[in-house]
Design brief:
Layout: H1 3-19, H2 30-48, H3 52-73, H4 77-93, H5 96-108, E1 125-127, E2 133-135, E3 144-146, H6 150-156, E4 180-182, E5 213-215, E6 217-222, E7 229-234, E8 240-245, E9 249-254, E10 260-265, E11 271-276, E12 282-287, E13 291-296, E14 302-307, E15 313-318, E16 324-329, E17 334-338, E18 343-348, E19 356-361, E20 367-372, E21 377-381, E22 387-391, E23 398-403, E24 409-414, E25 418-423, E26 429-434, E27 440-445, E28 451-456, E29 460-465, E30 471-476, E31 484-487, E32 493-497, E33 503-507
Parallel strand pairs: 5-30
Antiparallel strand pairs: 1-2, 3-4, 6-33, 7-8, 8-9, 9-10, 11-12, 12-13, 13-14, 15-16, 16-17, 17-18, 19-20, 20-21, 21-22, 23-24, 24-25, 25-26, 27-28, 28-29, 29-30, 31-32, 32-33
Helix pairs in contact: 1-2, 2-3, 2-4, 3-4, 4-5
Length: 510
């Protein structure tokens, strides 16, 4: 940096400090005060974006700066501000033990209980643009923790080091202490005696040593997004991939080079859902701005904007013909769109459907299956607009739905830590795939229909035999985030994205 630029930056910091009433020129606390406000304001921005992990890190950094300022200036105001901000983060994460400790620190600084963030749990609300208050289901699991007790569990549980055949497992290729998990969901799933449980079991949030578990190989890191990546999809031929997130953009990537092919801009809020057309020539994106946008992948042009939803769009699916698009979201409706005219041809809804999180067409254009916060898989007739079947069994929100190529089976993934395979004809649950230690974000049939892949916030991809329900292999991506995830149709490549803003391409299932 040249002398001129250096002086400009120095003046900028001084002006910022004076404008905020932080310090006088020459004050030794000036630079530290500016840093404090930088941490605090950035943490506030991440709270708005619901990226609570980064918000917590920055709020904690602001607290440390505030403690130093208190010693220099003899003023508690910065420390109180930063502790109150940290309380908001703990409240949003549901970490009430840390919230109680932080509130105790605030009391010691003279803050009254009525001025603090409540340590009682409660439902969060979202104020929509219309001024109405509507429910927003939590997108954040219980607070993350590290499993450092693998050896202790082996001591406490004589069977912990044994596989299902009663044989001792050999050393794992993954150190379980390096794999980050989140606490088990409140509705803890108890497997039945008849259930097939994965060898690399994670029901209680741990990964036991097992030879099936291997580290995925990172092939590429892809950078471009400037905020949290929330959704990912491979194109039908897996040569391209699309990503969307909090920076309001949709980006199309070349999977051979990692090069950004197109950046689609137009949404006014977070991008929350993506779907490629069957031939891969068009891409649909859904957003918190309540719209769906259709993009031409060759030209990079926006073709249509579809409006009709009254809240966040969270699920999209093309019909196998490519003529229709289904969309669903927080308003509890499924809208069927004719992509030629851009008009809604049917609105599907039922009593108290909750949030529609996932959609998939059965072969053709006559039926679509949905899943969401009502914990049911619902098969809909598009012609009548009414449910044909309701498949029950999941104990948590359904996050993904996929249909086999021949339409005979449905696979679903849920926050209850399971993926399940269902008969389309009878609605019966054929297999319950148990083994994940956290929300299962996605499950899909692989090419050929005999195998399936599931992806979870426990940072693992698990390969299953569809006929027997047995786990064939498990791959872990270690400490990296996995909020957005996509898998190619043969189960050899996976793409992940999270709140670190980067995408990562992995080789899995090998």
């Amino acid at each position: 940096m040249n002398k001129s630029s250096s002086k400009i930056f120095q003046k900028a910091f001084i002006v910022l400090g004076l404008s905020l009433g932080l310090a006088t020129p020459g004050s030794p606390a000036l630079s530290q005060t500016v840093i404090f406000h930088s941490f605090k304001q950035t943490a506030e921005q991440f709270i708005k974006e619901r990226d609570f992990s980064k918000a917590e890190q920055l709020a904690e950094a602001a607290v440390l700066e505030a403690e130093a300022l208190k010693n220099k200036l003899g003023d508690n105001r910065h420390l109180i501000d930063s502790l109150e901000l940290l309380s908001q983060v703990y409240k949003a994460q549901g970490d009430y033990s840390k919230l109680a400790v932080t509130n105790g620190r605030l009391r010691a600084l003279g803050v009254t209980s009525s001025e603090m963030v409540s340590s009682e749990s409660g439902e969060s609300v979202h104020e929509s643009g219309s001024g109405n208050v509507s429910r927003v289901d939590s997108e954040v699991p219980p607070q993350a923790y590290r499993n450092k007790v693998a050896s202790e569990q082996t001591t406490e549980d004589p069977g912990a080091g044994l596989n299902q055949a009663g044989q001792e497992n050999s050393s794992s290729t993954v150190d379980p202490a390096e794999v980050e998990f989140t606490e088990p969901v409140k509705e803890h799933l108890q497997p039945l005696k008849t259930d097939v449980i994965a060898s690399a079991e994670g029901i209680a949030g741990e990964l036991r040593n097992n030879t099936l578990l291997k580290k995925a190989k990172e092939l590429m890191e892809i950078k471009g997004h400037i905020s949290w990546v929330k959704c990912l999809e491979f194109s039908p031929d897996a040569r391209k991939a699309a990503s969307g997130g909090v920076d309001k953009t949709v980006r199309l990537w070349d999977m051979a080079s990692g090069r950004e092919l197109h950046r689609f801009e137009g949404h006014d809020d977070n991008v929350t859902a993506l779907a490629f057309s069957p031939v891969g020539s068009r891409l649909a994106s859904g957003s918190s701005d309540k719209t769906i946008r259709i993009w031409d992948l060759d030209s990079g042009r926006e073709i249509k904007v579809l409006k009709g939803h009254e809240n966040i769009v969270t699920g999209l699916a093309f019909s196998t013909t490519g003529r229709l698009l289904a969309s669903g979201g927080y308003d509890g409706t499924i809208r069927i769109w004719d992509l030629g005219s851009g008009k809604t041809i049917k609105v599907l809804t039922d009593k108290d459907p909750g949030t529609i999180r996932a959609l998939s067409f059965l072969p053709g254009e006559s039926k679509v299956v949905s899943g969401g916060s009502d914990r049911l898989l619902t098969v809909w007739s598009i012609e009548s607009g009414a449910p044909v079947k309701k498949l029950s069994g999941h104990k948590g929100d359904i996050l993904s739905v996929a249909v086999s190529v021949d339409g005979s089976r449905i696979i679903s993934a849920s926050r209850d830590l399971t993926a399940r395979i269902w008969s389309t004809a009878t609605g019966a649950e054929e297999k319950k795939l148990i083994g994940h230690g956290n929300w299962v974000l996605r499950a899909q049939f692989l090419a050929g229909g005999n195998r399936a892949m599931s992806c979870s916030l426990d940072k693992t991809f698990r390969l299953w035999d569809v006929g027997s329900g047995q786990e064939l292999s498990a791959s872990t991506i270690g400490p990296f985030g996995m909020w957005g995830v996509a898998v190619n149709d043969v189960g050899t490549r996976a793409l992940t994205g999270s709140n670190n803003f980067s995408l990562r391409l992995w080789q899995i299932g090998q």
